[in-house]
């Protein structure tokens, strides 16, 4: 029997270490030195490096990378189990060298970069000496590459990029931008002349590329290969988002249960009120179902590839946003007025749920993808009625049973009696 839901003891020890490390060191750092990884203070930076060295010593640095790309090679299933822990703490992914958007960009560089490109950009990204952003979405085309207009034209020993990008997360603070053009993926240093970052929005930036010139060797992968690179990047990114979303849902659920057992209303703790119990039960079931689906999808990727698991990745992607929205809302509601403030993580979590349904492609696109791919495995029925039409099934059953009934008159007599009995009942 191949089914197994257990974690091997050696890896469970790793998970236990990660949990303790995050509770004792990462979470306090988040509150005392917010965004410590990007801090310009050399003293803070040195302390961050000390903590990151502990992660390296455990063999847990850049945990998202496969072994052939320079990572620990845990695979997606073990990565999912790790992300269930580090996704709970805002600063933990960066402390483990596994924070978006760098993770996806690092994967592209590791898979498609030349040795010179890896030396120039991959190593500094892995060491967090520089940071990156992914500039894909466009104002008029959303995340549909068939509608993109940003284009690069070769001019001598340079590429000249013109276009407009929208929702480039962390673009303002990135050192390099991975710009998806209609004819290729280009690495563009943020301070390149012609890169104009609009004042708003602050976090997911609107960027105009106006006659931006980069050397020829800033093309990543083959010319006209942007879609292939993007699928490689986004497939992994979507499942990783789902892994971390489970951690966020668990955090909201823990807060919900703690509050339900602590707050009193109408003479008893609110956990004894049936409506509160309903929200807790529904949240529990939603989280468990999402988690099992994410783990199964991660397992499928390990057994095949992100391309082969594309249907499930897309389904996980639109499911995670829905579950995060429902669970965080239930938790927010149970916490009452406190839940509407910024004094707990819930308000930000609930506000972020719609973003999760838009980032890396809107959920509606993924739903359409799932439907199209699933329908390939089905066929239309002939005639007016479906194959499960009971009169059809009954007729087919009699045909299949005929040899048996012919050979056994007693069974045939019973069959005729059954038929007469049910014919009377159907009148």
Characteristics:
Butyryl-CoA Dehydrogenase, subunit A, domain 2, Acyl-CoA_Oxase/DH_mid-dom, 427 residues, flavin adenine dinucleotide binding, alpha+beta, 4-stranded mixed sheet, FAD, 10 strands, 54% helix, 13% strand, AcylCoA_DH/ox_N, AcylCoA_DH/oxidase_NM_dom_sf, 4 domains, Butyryl-Coa Dehydrogenase, subunit A, domain 1
First-last Cα distance: 48 Å
Amount of beta strand:
5-15%
CATH architecture annotation of the largest domain: Up-down Bundle
Number of helices: 13
Order of helices and strands: HHHHHHEEEEEEEEHEEHHHHHH
How many whole angstroms does the radius of gyration measure?
27 Å
Structure in words:
There is one protein chain. This protein is an alpha+beta fold. The protein has four domains: 9-113, Orthogonal Bundle (Butyryl-Coa Dehydrogenase, subunit A, domain 1); 132-220, Butyryl-CoA Dehydrogenase, subunit A, domain 2; 227-377, Butyryl-CoA Dehydrogenase, subunit A, domain 3 (Up-down Bundle), CATH 1.20.140.10; 390-426. It is 54% helix and 13% strand. Strands 1-4-5-8 form a four-stranded mixed sheet. Helix 5 (102-112) runs antiparallel to helix 6 and helix 8 (274-303) packs antiparallel against helix 9. The chain starts with 8 loop residues before the first helix and ends with a helix. Residues 11-127 form the Acyl-CoA dehydrogenase/oxidase N-terminal domain. Its cofactor is FAD. Homodimer. Residues 133-201 form the Acyl-CoA oxidase/dehydrogenase middle domain.
């Amino acid at each position: 029997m191949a089914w197994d839901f257990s974690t091997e003891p050696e890896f469970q020890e790793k998970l236990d270490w990660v949990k303790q490390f995050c509770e004792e060191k990462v979470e306090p750092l988040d509150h005392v030195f917010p965004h410590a990884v990007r801090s310009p203070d050399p003293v803070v930076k040195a302390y961050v490096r000390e903590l990151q060295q502990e992660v390296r010593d455990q063999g847990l640095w850049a945990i998202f990378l496969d072994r052939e790309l320079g990572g620990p090679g845990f695979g997606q299933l073990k990565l999912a189990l790790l992300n269930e822990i580090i996704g709970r703490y805002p600063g933990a992914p960066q402390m483990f060298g596994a924070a978006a958007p760098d993770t996806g960009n690092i994967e592209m560089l590791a898979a498609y970069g030349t040795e010179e490109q890896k030396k120039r950009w991959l190593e500094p990204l892995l060491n967090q000496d520089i940071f990156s952003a992914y500039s894909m979405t466009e104002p008029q085309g959303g995340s549909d590459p068939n509608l993109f207009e940003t284009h690069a034209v070769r001019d001598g020993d340079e590429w000249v990029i013109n276009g407009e990008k929208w929702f480039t997360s962390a673009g303002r603070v990135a050192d390099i931008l991975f710009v998806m053009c209609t004819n290729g993926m280009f690495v563009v240093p943020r301070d390149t002349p012609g890169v104009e970052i609009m004042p708003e929005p602050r976090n997911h930036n609107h960027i105009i590329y106006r006659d931006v010139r980069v050397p020829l060797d800033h093309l990543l992968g083959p010319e006209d290969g942007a879609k292939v690179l993007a699928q490689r990047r986004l497939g992994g990114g979507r499942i990783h988002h789902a892994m971390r979303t489970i951690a966020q849902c668990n955090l909201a659920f823990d807060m919900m249960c703690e509050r339900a057992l602590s707050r009193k209303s109408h003479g008893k703790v609110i956990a004894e009120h049936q409506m509160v119990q309903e929200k807790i039960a529904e949240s529990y079931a939603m989280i468990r179902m999402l988690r099992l689906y994410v783990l199964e999808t991660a397992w499928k990727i390990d057994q095949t590839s992100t391309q082969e698991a594309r249907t499930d990745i897309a389904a996980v992607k639109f499911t995670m946003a829905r579950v995060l929205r429902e669970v965080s809302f239930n938790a927010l509601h149970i916490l009452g007025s406190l839940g509407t403030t910024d004094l707990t993580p819930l308000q930000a979590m609930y506000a972020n749920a719609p973003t999760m349904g838009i980032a890396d492609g809107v959920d509606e696109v993924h739903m359409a993808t799932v439907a199209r791919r699933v329908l390939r495995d089905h066929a239309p029925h002939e005639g007016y009625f479906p194959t499960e039409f009971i009169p059809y099934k009954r007729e087919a059953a009699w045909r299949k049973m005929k040899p048996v009934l012919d050979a056994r008159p007693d069974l045939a007599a019973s069959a005729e009696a059954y038929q007469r009995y049910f014919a009377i009942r159907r009148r």
